[in-house]
Amino acid sequence: MPAILELFTTNRVLLFFGILSLYAAFKTIRLILHVHSCRQRWKDVPALPRHPVLGHILNIGKRLDPSLKRLPDYGFKEVWDELGRPDAYLLDMEPAAVTFLIVTHPSVAESLVQPSPQYKYSIPKSDTYKFLRPLLGKESLITVEGEDWRNLRRRFNKGFSPAHLHSLDPLIISKTRIFVERLQGHAENGETFALKEPAQDLTTDIITELTVEKDFHAQGTMEGQGHKGPLGMLTASRLLSGLCFKMGRGFNLLHYFDPVRPTRSWVYEQIFNRELSTVVKQQMAAESTDNKQEHQKSITRLAISGMTPSKALISNTVSQIKSFLFAGQDTTATLIQWLCFELSKASWAESHAAILEKLVAEHDAVFGKTDDPFNALNVLGRENEQGRRDAEAILGSKLPYTTAFIKETLRLHPPASTARFIPEVSAENPTPVTVKLHRREGDKEAKEVVINGLRVYVAQYLVHRNKSVWGDDAEVFRPERFLDEQYMANLPSGAFRPFERGPRNCIGQELAMLEAKVVMCAVTRGFRWEKIGYSGKKGEVGYIPKGDGTDGPECEVWSRSSVTAVPMDGMMMKVERR
């Protein structure tokens, strides 16, 4: 009897392992067939040589390793240069990850982000955005599709209209005064500081007031206290971007299987959601009891006006506020840092000294040349009716060179890019999506290829530095290009796309430009900037950082990935009064 039981047990074990082996073999064969099919389908798309099993994981993955302190786009540029700068190329990370089409030319980008008969609101966003749900919310305007997206965009558009935003100029200017006072304090102390902190505090104070009429006093709160405490709302919102799963960073087991990161992300997401749910309820209560108020409403109140409060509406609105707080404080703060970095070059580069002279001359002409280098804020901050109209006119059209300076900064230092997913051909999507690609820069003929099933990354960093689009000086900082009507007319459609294009462009682009103009008016004549470390003094134009610790200390500061592209050192600066 024991022998029979032992035989029975042994047979069960063998059967289990036999089934397990068959299942593993089945999955392996399916994976091999899938990978082979993918590589056959897209064989006409430019790409580096592939490993027969691992695709590009070895020769591209090492350039995107999470341990490198640099933006993945620098690795994409290395590959782009090796391939002869095609209009787009394939990044084949099968079987470990998804396959991406890296877009480098505006003509290809435009064909994908503009509406079409098949895709009414442009091609859908990439499914990889799901990793940003803790930061943006489940129903974010940035990620939802179809009519859900269209309805949200309509509701929130009025809050981001130029007319509404200009009515809030006094608020933006009052917050910028605090920013200037903090810079004056740094100037008096002669200390080195990370510009990221005051810039992010400024944009946080502005976006929270505009979206929910609540002042979190980011500029007046010490680190570790209040909303900046360990479990504070501002701490949660800022840390979440660093805790999101990072796509486009190669293959690293420690990165993929990190139990601490998702746990911390969940904790901070609960803090963020709880605080914002309370704020939304307050906004709904205010809207229902004070619907005839005379002062300007917040973006949230404009969006929920006339709607019946409900749990679903609260949840949906929280998602939108999370998205606006992230985009409104993060990307605009990054823009401010790069603006000041470009101003810092005036102390050692003749080209930038000449640029600064033109900026100062424009501000003197518009605001008057006085002993007070900060008088622009006084001119823009007049709160009588005529003063408000004057401020709107100045910020709208009377600062052309300042606007060109901001655009050139956005061109060379774009804070974000878009990722899309092209669905497979099916009954719902019967028409294949095709693009025409030049395989190398200078090729006269373009080959049409089908790209269904691919994720797409429109690499703004590469589009904006494409010499076949912008000319031989594509990597040179030259604001005048935006004032040259003939030059701009000759650019292909969509060449300049820092806020993306098409129906799903950035809803907050007017606000970002408005904040940037006010900051430029406040600091251009008042401060002299010095970048500490990675100043660019001895760097070469178009230098691609390695991010592995071997980059020279005086090459130009570069970006790293924190959902968006942010300066790798927090933009360490010294500042003094002019």
Textual characterization of the structure:
By secondary structure, the chain is an alpha+beta fold. It has one domain (19-577): Cytochrome p450 (Orthogonal Bundle), CATH 1.10.630.10. 49% of the residues lie in helices and 8% in strands. It is built from 21 helices and eleven strands. A four-stranded mixed β-sheet has the order 1-2-7-4. A three-stranded antiparallel β-sheet has the order 3-11-8. It has a two-stranded antiparallel sheet with strand order 5-6. A hairpin with a 6-residue loop joins strand 1 and strand 2 (99-103). Helix 9 (233-243) packs across helix 11 (260-289), helix 13 (311-344) packs across helix 17 (400-412) and helix 13 packs parallel to helix 21 (509-523). The termini are far apart. The relative contact order is 0.16. The mean pLDDT is 89.
Explain the layout of strands and helices.
Blueprint: H1 2-41, H2 72-82, E1 88-92, E2 99-103, H3 106-113, H4 133-136, H5 146-157, H6 162-167, H7 169-189, E3 193-194, H8 196-212, H9 233-243, H10 253-256, H11 260-289, H12 299-304, H13 311-344, H14 350-367, H15 375-380, H16 385-397, H17 400-412, E4 418-421, E5 434-437, E6 447-450, E7 455-458, H18 460-463, H19 467-470, H20 485-490, H21 509-523, E8 527-531, E9 559-562, E10 564-567, E11 572-577
Parallel strand pairs: 2-7
Antiparallel strand pairs: 1-2, 3-11, 4-7, 5-6, 8-11, 9-10
Pfam family, one: p450
Keywords: Heme, Iron, Membrane, Metal-binding, Transmembrane, Transmembrane helix
Cofactor: heme
